[in-house]
Amino acid sequence: MKKLPEKTVERLSQYRRVLVKESENGKLHIYSHELAALLHITPVQVRRDIMLIGHTGTLRKGYDIQELTKSIGNIIDSKTEQKVAIVGAGNLGKAIMGYLKGKRTKLTIKAAFDVNPEKTGRVIAGIRCYHIDDLEDIIQKENISIAILTVPAEEAIPVTDRLLAAGIKGILNYTPTPINVQPHAYLEEYDMITSIEKVAFFSK
Amino acid sequence: MKKLPEKTVERLSQYRRVLVKESENGKLHIYSHELAALLHITPVQVRRDIMLIGHTGTLRKGYDIQELTKSIGNIIDSKTEQKVAIVGAGNLGKAIMGYLKGKRTKLTIKAAFDVNPEKTGRVIAGIRCYHIDDLEDIIQKENISIAILTVPAEEAIPVTDRLLAAGIKGILNYTPTPINVQPHAYLEEYDMITSIEKVAFFSK
DNA sequence: TAGATTGTTAATCGATTAACAATC
DNA sequence: TAGATTGTTAATCGATTAACAATC
Questions:
Q1: Is the pTM of this model over 0.85?
Q2: Which residues 109-138 of chain A have a CB within 8 Å of chain B?
Q3: Structural domains in chain A?
Q4: Which nucleotides of D are covered by protein (CB under 7 A)?
């Protein structure tokens, strides 16, 4: 399979979520323009994305929701379970634990890490919270490959170094500190302050 | 001024943050390659962005940090204060209140909204939390123009309708539900689950 | 058939990067 | 001067959209 564009991967995740929801409502088939309307994008974009993963629909009924959901899963899910750690169990870390809880079958949060003794050793939102001193141990023991960084800004770089040394393969950095993971891992950064400033700028 | 590219606006926000930090460290001037290294991007991109806002540096010393910071502010900050509401005072809402607290002078959080009686009427992270029934009242009274949506997925659409009716000009939607604000406001959507699935996919 | 739909190529748009003149 | 830097245009890359053939 040719490498999928980043934006297509993002949309596939979103298609799947609304497909699951439509399926729960008893819907069996969906047209590209219906799926597009649900996400406020164009029908062409939907069809092109679906084409890129090699799935085909029918001219009469559009796409079979079950089948399409499965096709998307075959592309974006790993064959094996991917294990995730939340590094930093503050408000943001807790929010993510809540969101991801039991949602995806192939992506499971196996551990949270913090320094606060009121959090370490406890179970938060169903996830065991360890002291960050145990980072390497737990990552290796639990075979965790993905880390979500929600530590304070000044901890981002030292913690990243430890994550990479422990063999982490993907990092989602919610810290305002830019980090570098080359060539060991895949990195996605998201900065809330920047997003707010962007909205402020374009809504002037 | 010609319309700035979205990505340039995002980076300007980030340049400013690291410039402020370098300035606090006593640094007075900075070269494009230094600024680029701090953000892990290329020096050309830095120079091009700076060119787009009409700022110029010097061949000897690069950019004057004070001046550049001011130039960026002149472009991305509003002349008048822009007021922000956090709609949904859960973990994510609280995280954002904490991050934004006292950071930017022209962007101030004026209110949070929730339905939970344990939160409404109280002050959280220095921000007054109102019941969502008072949404329209407070937005108008406080002249709030930007909303950050952190309500549960099923509330996103009804709450958005109320925000637009109340005259909100920009929405940052952290809900997994896609919303539509045309033609009344500017919209930015960010979906954490999608980001995590993207990292999972590309780190396979 | 007429109308609606999918699948796909070509064109366009937006963003990044290469190349390089100017200059201190 | 030689070396390093900025500012800027042109080329490239990536993503979206327009156009349309095929078909039920």
A1: yes
A2: none
A3: 6-75 (1.10.10.10), 82-194 (3.40.50.720)
A4: 4-9, 14-19, 22-24
